[in-house]
Model the fold of this input.
Amino acid sequence: MEAVFLGDKPDPNKKLREVPHKPGVYLMKDRLKRVIYVGKARDLRKRLGQYFIPSRRMTADLKTRALLDSVWDFDIHLVRNEPEALLLEGKLIKEFRPKYNVSFRDDKRFLLVKVNLSDVIPRFQLARLKKDDGCRYFGPFAHAGALRSTLRWMRKRFGIRSCRVAEPGEADYSRCLDHIIKNCSAPCIRKVSLEEYKVRVLQACEFLDGQSQEMLRQIENDMQSAAERLEFEKAAELRNMLEDLRRTTRPARRFTRGSLPTSIDPEADLRSLADALLLPAPPSAMECFDISNISTTHVVASMVSFRNGVPDKSNYRRYRIRTVEGQDDFASMAEVVRRRYSRVLLEGRVVAPDLVEFSQESPAETMARIQRIQPERAVRLPDLIIVDGGKGQLSAACRELQRLGLDEVPIIGLAKEYEEIYRPGRALPLRLPEGSGALQLLQRIRDEAHRFANGYHQLLMKKRVAESILDDCPGVSENRKQALLKHFGSIERLRKASVAGIAEVDGISEKLAEAISRFLTK
Done:
């Protein structure tokens, strides 16, 4: 490993003179150029200057003094306003996970607003994760309170429904009184036509997009008129509402992963990982497995792939555990590793049968030769396998690799509690320095596998909740329910099917098909 010359601690005041009096985010770094603290400021020059006042060390608490002792350098990133600074600060803390930051280190995200314009009667909802589900998303928004206040005003101003979707057999007007107090245009009982309602929804979308200056001026005029009439309480209410609306609709940059300032160096992290694990070369292809079994209803697994230190999402895979009863992480890990690499070996035989048919090499050597001869082929074995867990998960995975003849492929287990690395044949775990590039790379791929597995688990649970509606349908037993779902694939497709189409399913008579159609229509 190349030696790092630390030298003398530089004088921060020289760099501080070049910092402008503008809002932004600052990153404190230690002598090894690792980010140890991320903060935001309305005035970067003033905020950073407070850190380097000599008397600050005398009055600061222990944590701040430790931070000041560790700071070797700092970087800044300018933004246009405070909300942008807050959004960027949260993104950077989640990316770098600095040791001296407490807030924003969890997986909680800023609020978004979503609306599904393809719904019959669209409504606006809060969300924290943007999904590829066909909905339109607005945000993220830095001020949650202002956003909620804005949504309440917007629903009343445009007459947008706020009620949930009615349960089967339940009419909207029987449980929603918003249309009586003039807070909703009530398209569910046709007080306005669906076409007029969708025009209102589009106007609300334009408002959230920032095309709201005319409305804001009207509210400001109403506030001034109320003050002139000495109606100060109403004027104060309008003033607060105007401030919330301006906060929400103020244009702000959306900091995506590609636009984030970053100091992550994937190549350096790979070299560091190869040195730490004593690998012959940096692992350009890595695959990580995680098991999600929040309940015994659906036990699922994920496999995420990193290429050259960054996610390779086209090669992500997800699995439903088939052969394991109950919650058994070890057996589940064994099944998913067996299925994954059995498939890889099978694909190797398909793409290069002449290289495999009479080969005396081990499967790992054959796959490596296929990769050398035909590098354009997508099928290949990883340079490193990572399983989320300790000795138990690692042992289960190693047994399956040995049965497949792939025991030469490097594999490790990463235990989350103390970030310990377990290796085959080693009794004691390896603990890398906190903040090292190698450990951060392993954490990134492990966290990505965890996110992907949990997302699949939530998807299946939502599907199960939707399917449970058939449990209340008279005449539909569990076997008939499974036959219907197998034939149509989902409740939505079953709901759109004709009576004749439903009657085509085995075990479903025409009379029962009519009853099912009426039940789902309600």
